[in-house]
Design a protein that fits this description.
Blueprint lengths: L48 H5 L33 E6 L2 E7 L5 H12 L6 E2 L2 E3 L3 E4 L29 E4 L11 E4 L12 E7 L1 H8 L3 E3 L5 E4 L4 E8 L1
Antiparallel strand pairs: 1-2, 1-11, 2-8, 3-11, 4-5, 5-7, 6-7, 6-8, 9-10
């Protein structure tokens, strides 16, 4: 199978740079980076939140209310027990996805995610990137790949031998010290993905919804990567159980 080089945008990054070949190998080498410059729309694919609102919603769902414009200086201390296993339910256009959070592995990341979720930051946002066979990327209210909550958090990278497997949930970034609000969920295993993204949970329910999202039609982004959803997948809301 062919090797696929992938760029996953993060807070502070822009549209995603990528080199692809005809076939996708889920054991391929993956490089996650971001580029610079403002997003553009030479392809007809949506390039921002307004573009996603203008197209049909995936799974014949109704679009949720638009997200609030929220910015923060820092996350509040949410008082999460490091030995606990809180759960986050992402109510998406294609069904619920339940994530078990792991504060023992990534306490600052989990604290920030819970803070943003309970603040309503993610409600009504659109997933701006679906790379079929690899990842769903979301968490940017602007849906440009540039959005952030106004702050960054410490990197909490996994061990050097960590393998990003199907269902793993991690933060996107544009390099060390740039983690904000954007996160990704693995559709499949990615053995070549370096341990440079803070892993803070895993999908424990709703794999059927995740699989449905993985089949949403995509078009090219401004860099030519086939990853921009042509039917909008929204996070209607995120609820936390702890």
């Amino acid at each position: 199978m062919a090797v696929l080089t992938v760029a996953v945008a993060a807070c502070g990054g822009s549209d995603d740079a990528a080199t692809t070949t005809a076939d996708v190998d889920t054991t391929a080498t993956v490089d996650i980076t971001s580029t610079t410059g403002a997003p553009s729309d030479p392809t007809g694919s949506p390039a921002d939140y307004a573009g996603f609102r203008a197209q049909p919603t995936a799974c014949e769902a109704e679009p949720p209310p638009e997200p609030q414009t929220l910015q923060f200086a820092a996350p509040e201390d949410m008082g999460i027990d490091p030995e606990s296993r809180p759960r986050a339910t992402l109510a998406t256009s294609c069904g619920d996805i339940v994530i078990e959070l792991d504060p023992s592995a990534a306490p600052e990341t989990v604290n920030s995610f819970v803070f943003l979720a309970e603040s309503g930051y993610y409600d009504g946002t659109a997933a701006h990137r679906i790379l079929q066979g690899y990842v769903l990327q979301a968490g940017d209210p602007t849906a440009t790949g540039l959005g952030n909550p106004g702050y960054t958090i410490a990197d909490e990278f996994p061990p050097a031998d960590y393998r990003y497997e199907r269902g793993a949930v991690a933060m996107a970034n544009a390099g060390p010290g740039t983690t904000g609000s954007q996160f990704f969920i693995m559709f499949e295993d990615a053995g070549g993905l370096p341990p440079e993204y803070s892993v803070f949970g895993r999908v424990v329910e709703g794999e059927d919804a995740l699989d449905t999202i993985a089949t949403v039609a995509v078009g090219p982004n401004s860099q030519g990567e086939p990853s921009t959803p042509l039917e909008s997948v929204y996070i209607d809301e995120v609820t936390i159980e702890r």
